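Subject: for your reference before the review

Hello V.,

The reviewers asked for a structural picture of the protein, and I figured it would be easier to keep everything in one thread rather than splitting it across files. Below is the amino acid sequence we used in the manuscript, unchanged from the supplementary table.
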Amino acid sequence: MVQDLPPAKGYEPIQWKRNLPSRGFRPSIYLATLLGICGYGFYELIGAIRERNELSREKVWSRIYLQPMLEAELDRDTVRRHFSSIEKEKEIMKDVPGWDAEESVYNDKKFRRPAFINLPKW
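And here is what came back from the structure prediction:
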């Protein structure tokens, strides 16, 4: 009788692990791609923030340069309205004896900017 023995070089190892084919790239490739995309996005974001800051700086300086002209226009408009108001007052009070529309209500000769302006009714 012959005893059943293992082969001379031994048995092959038992395959106990799943042998699935790998799908896709290695995780390091995915990580490198993700870092590249995020890096480019941050690069563009920093450029956009710098552009926005430059535009806001330009806007502030343009307002600073235009301020004297806008104040001069406001002063001209205020003077025009002031003289128009005096003319209207003269027209309304022409029948009242001793009324001087140009006389100041204060006891000095200073010009005071009107606290309010009567706008015409449209």
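For the response letter, the relevant points are probably these. The two ends are 127 Å apart (CA to CA). The mean pLDDT is 88.

Happy to draft the paragraph if you're swamped.

O.
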